[in-house]
Specification:
single chain, alpha/beta, Aspartate Aminotransferase, domain 2, Aspartate Aminotransferase, domain 1, 14% strand, binds pyridoxal-5'-phosphate, Cystathionine gamma-synthase family protein, pyridoxal phosphate, PyrdxlP-dep_Trfase_small
Amino acid sequence: MSDHQFAPESQMMSFGYKPELSEGAIKCPIFQTSTFAFKKAEDGKAFFEIAYGKRTQSEGEELGLIYSRLNNPNLQITENRLSLWDGSEDAAIFESGMGAISSMLFEFLKPGQAVLYSMPVYGGTDHLITKVLPNFNIQCVGVSPLDDKEAVMEKIEKSGLKDKISFIYLETPANPTNALVDISMFREIADELKTEENPIYVGVDNTYMGPIWQHPLQLGADLVIYSATKYIGGHSDLVAGACLGSAELIGRVKGMRTFMGNMAGPHTGWLLMRSLETLKLRMEKQAQNAEKVAEFLNSHPKVDKVYYLGNLTEADGRQYKIFKEQCGGNKGAMVAFDIKGGEKAAFRFLNSMKLIKLAVSLGSTESLAEHPATMTHSDVDEDIRQEIAITESLVRISVGVEDAKDIIWDIEQALTSI
Ligand SMILES: *Cc1c(COP(=O)(O)O)cnc(C)c1O
């Protein structure tokens, strides 16, 4: 009996928290404090030695609390709980997804190096990679989800940056059309290009599938990124981010976080703990609803093409294979579709919704819809938009936890208004 292993969802209410240290409170309180009292000066000295990497922790030695830019119970317990879903050694929580992405890239890329990335990535990430990093003499090479290994290698050769690539950044499924990027293929490419002095790490933005439906660390990635604003937070009431991986790599990310100063505060950590308790419940319900929504859209005469992972079949070849192997057949809860009639019809649809909210962001309890071409992806280069089919008529829906009948009723009445 003693070797029984609890599933993550069974541990979200208790893991890493000791009620006896907090007056017996069942729930972890908010540790709304900037600094922590040391019992004696020797403790303060020891905690700093470890926090600043002057020596490694000895067996059984705990890293005591110092100052909330370095550590705080709400942050640490959330990090420990989030790690359970992906089976990672450690996690670092940030005050936003962009905070996690920028700190990770700045830790692993140095001036003179280059990042290989899959296009399109989230708009903020795209801006960081193509507009901000070049100011620090860090170049980039973009590849498409539809490129096979040969095509990727050709683009790398052509870029003239082959010897400089030091990090591979992927986002899969690609937002908004659910195009899948093959993580294991990029692992192979990293292993072929790396040298002793230049280990090439692979980081994957797993926001779209959340920690329930896809586990990049098990597929060859070194680091996983989340915008915890989305499924993990799940209630459209917070902005947060996370980076997960081995203790060694996350130790480095946390070092960068300490000096960038972009860790999450105690209240955000506390809200995330609340959210993690229902993560699986919410995501499973959202996936069930999305399946019904996609089925409805698939047969509607005013809808042209529906982009939904559950629509992939053997006929889709490599994409179907990646879906099976990488997503374990999980279909997610993001659906995009082309409405007949272009931007005018798409806007008419969005303006007619009564239950679904017209807003960007995703993964929340309420259903949200938006127009990628003029909103989330308005900054993406025209040729990439063409290549991955971000058309004027495309609408993206993040399916929520409402009664599926009501979501479908709303879509149907909004389509009728066109
Ligand atoms: C929202 C989002 C981000 C950015 O996260 P923030 O929490 O808004 O900073 C990064 N990647 C993806 C895929 C996202 O959807």
